[in-house]
Amino acid sequence: MTPRILSLRLRPDRDARLRRKNALIDEAMDRYLEWREECAAVSEAYQSWTSAPTEETDMPFAAYTAALDREQSAATVYRRALEGVRRSI
Predict the structure, then answer these.
(1) What is the span of the domain harbouring residue 63?
(2) What per-residue confidence (pLDDT) applies to 37?
(3) Alpha-carbon gap, residue 50 to 62, rounded angstroms
(4) Residue 46 falls within a domain, yes or no?
(5) Reported pTM
(6) Average of per-residue pLDDT across 20-43
(7) Cβ atoms of residues 11 and 27 within 8 Å
(8) Cα(63)–Cα(72) distance, integer angstroms
(9) Which H or E element spans position 50?
(10) Which residues have C-beta within 8 Å of that of residue 78, sequence separation ≥ 6?
(11) Pairwise CA distance, residues 22 & 88, whole Å
């Protein structure tokens, strides 16, 4: 078997690996964007909480802590996506 024929036979597997790697990178980018959106939501919620009248801070503070929880969850999902990319390299 010539090297040319051998390389052609191996190409579909290489192409499949490349498609999987690209899919993992796309997934990581999506997770990054979601995390950044949650970061922005934390900033907005913090601003709402700190600018609320003293007697009306309970609800804005609850919204802020909920935003922090969502941001932490999104960061965890993003980290896992990055780990998948790292394993594929």
Answers:
(1) 16-88
(2) 98
(3) 12
(4) yes
(5) 0.81
(6) 97
(7) no
(8) 14
(9) helix 3-51
(10) 28, 31, 32, 34, 35
(11) 10
pLDDT for residue 6: 56
Contact 49, 64 (CB under 8 A): yes
How far apart (Å, rounded) are the C-alpha atoms in residues 11 and 50?
A: 58
> DSSP 3-state assignment of 1?
coil
In a domain, 71, yes or no: yes
Distance CA 36, CA 42 (A): 10
User: In degrees rounded to 5, what are phi and psi of residue 69?
Assistant: -65, -45
Structural domain count of the chain: 1
Token pair recorded at residue 55: 């007697």
Mean pLDDT confidence for 63-75:
98
